[in-house]
Specification:
four-stranded parallel β-sheet; FAD/NAD(P)-binding domain; D-Amino Acid Oxidase, Chain A, domain 2; single chain; FAD; FAD-binding domain-containing protein; alpha/beta; binds flavin-adenine dinucleotide; flavoprotein; 2 domains
């Protein structure tokens, strides 16, 4: 499905900062880990990256990445061009649960005030990052499962224990190993509790030829004018599904009440019968949609459990040598549309802070604490956004005409530039963290005018139930 991946030539590599003699050790070669490796390499650090999987995890369906993350590709000529080649720019329709189109086509490029939202086949995005990293001379070390983290403040090292007992160290260790990271023990002392949201999401992606073999499916989902892809969002009572047809792949998702079939794992495959059990209960669910579901090849359907976690403000270990990043620091529900974007923003912010510490002769642990300070509130606001979006989607009185289902991305989300932000706020943050005045810090990358108030999922739901103000009541435009 991915075709041949062109290779970057040495002349397309970015200008690299002078070597820093500092090693950044990363656990996890997901989108967050790979981007961290790239940005740290560009800024002159030595990079090592350990990955549990035996080989590249080029799996998954669609992932949406916002301009706040991919604006950084200005520093990467090959990535910049390749990203434009592989992105899909579908036209969007809102439909009811019978598949009748209610509004659209909406140009996905028009849903953001500035910049562009990139919709990618995750395997292609992953492969693009891996290819660039290889061209930088960095190879992912596969089959290396990290089972523990430690730090030695005296020697100024962070380290990981790899399954089998080997210890590997770096000047800084980045835990980018996803929602089940083992880094919480060192960083927070206790794991951030995860609990089921009560729903799971069935997700599949496969070659479009398989889907187009069925006449009813072919007629229902032609390409749009100019060969553009089409994405449909189906909303109805207790129904939330998406269908994406592009020139070479088909993706569908179905959010469902979880009766114990789903797992929080990207390798948890289920049979299409599981999906058909749910669609059988949707009144007037069209036959062509069931036919499409039945065409899903074996081993292509994942049932991902939608888990809730309260925000975790502490991403940095006590000695400042280990930091959590991406999903390891903050898990997202797909309804936030922000998991990939925030992992990349984290990567850019962290690499920038490490580089600034190097050039301004500040200690590396301070860089980690500043990065944590610059990032946590923004990420936490977006996590809250995802919780409420999901809550709005799966209700008995789901009305497809309700504006709450529309894709909304405020300026504060899309116009942020994590590299510029870290550079602009660095000196001020050095003074603030150095003097232990973090409580006085005000971030400028959150909704305008917001003064962040810590929240929990229970508190958020209860406050909204009582009609009280919450973290979501700032200016989100
Ligand atoms: C196989 C896979 C498929 C996905 N498919 C989709 C999708 O279709 N749509 C979507 O929106 N999101 C998908 N995601 C999630 C999405 O990519 C992430 O939520 C987001 O990009 C944040 O990235 P991350 O790097 O923080 O975490 P992840 O992308 O989860 O990456 C974590 C990486 O760490 C590795 N790892 C885990 N434990 C260890 C360990 N103990 N030691 C070493 N390495 C470890 C994992 O194998 C993985 O490569 C998928 C993730 C994976 C791993």
């Amino acid at each position: 499905m991915t075709g041949t991946t062109p290779t970057p030539t040495p002349s397309t590599l970015p200008t690299r900062s002078p070597p820093t003699n500092t090693t950044i050790l990363i656990s996890g070669a997901g989108i967050g880990g790979l981007f961290t490796a790239l940005e740290c390499w560009r800024l002159g650090f030595t990079v090592r990256i350990l990955e549990r999987a035996a080989f590249s995890s080029a799996q998954g369906d669609s992932v949406t990445i916002g301009p706040s993350a991919l604006s950084s590709l200005r520093n990467w000529p090959w990535l910049h061009g390749r990203n434009l080649e592989i992105t899909e720019t579908p036209l969007l329709y809102y439909c009811n649960h019978r598949g009748e189109r209610l509004s659209g086509p909406i140009d996905m490029d028009a849903v953001v005030a500035s910049g562009r939202v990139y919709m990618h086949a995750r395997p292609r995005l992953h492969e693009m990052l891996l290819t660039q990293l290889r061209a930088c001379g960095v190879e992912v070390e596969y089959g290396r499962k990290v089972v523990g983290y430690y730090e030695d403040e005296g020697r100024g090292k962070g380290g990981v224990v790899v399954q089998g007992g080997e210890r590997v160290e770096g000047d800084v260790v980045v835990a980018a190993d996803g929602v089940h990271t083992r880094s919480w023990e060192l960083v927070q002392g206790e794991e951030v509790g995860a609990r089921s949201s009560g729903h799971g999401i069935l997700r599949a992606a496969f070659g479009v030829d398989v889907a187009m073999a069925d006449e009813a499916v072919r007629e229902r989902w032609p390409l749009e004018e100019g060969g553009r892809a089409v994405v449909e969002l189906w909303v109805g009572p207790d129904v939330y599904c998406t269908f994406l047809r592009s020139k070479d792949r088909f993706t569908w998702t179905l959010t469902h009440p979880d009766h114990g079939t789903a797992e929080e794992s990207w390798s948890h495959k289920v049979d299409v019968e599981e999906a058909l059990k749910f669609t059988a209960k949707i009144p007037d669910f069209p036959d062509y949609a069931n036919r499409l579901i039945k065409l899903t090849p074996p081993d292509k359907l994942i049932d991902w459990k939608l888990m809730w976690r309260d925000p975790n403000s502490q991403w940095t270990s006590p000695g400042g040598r280990v930091i959590q990043l991406g999903d390891a620091a903050h898990s997202f529900l797909p309804s936030s549309g922000n998991g990939g974007t925030q992992a990349i923003e984290d990567a850019i912010s962290l690499a920038t802070c490490l580089s600034l510490a190097h050039t301004t002769h500040q200690p590396l642990p301070l860089a980690l604490r500043i990065h944590n300070l610059l990032r946590f509130e923004r990420v936490s606001c977006l996590q809250a956004f995802g919780v409420l979006n999901r809550d709005a989607r799966n209700t008995k009185n789901n009305d497809p005409k309700d504006k709450k289902h529309e894709v909304r991305l405020g300026k504060w989300i899309v116009e942020h530039d994590p590299e510029v932000y870290a550079r602009e706020r660095w000196d001020e943050a050095v003074r603030c963290v150095g003097e232990g005045r973090e409580k006085e810090w005000r971030n400028g990358n959150v909704p305008k005018g917001m003064v962040y108030v810590p929240w929990t999922i229970d508190g958020l739901m209860e406050a909204r139930g009582r009609g009280e103000r919450t973290v979501l009541d700032g200016d989100w435009s």
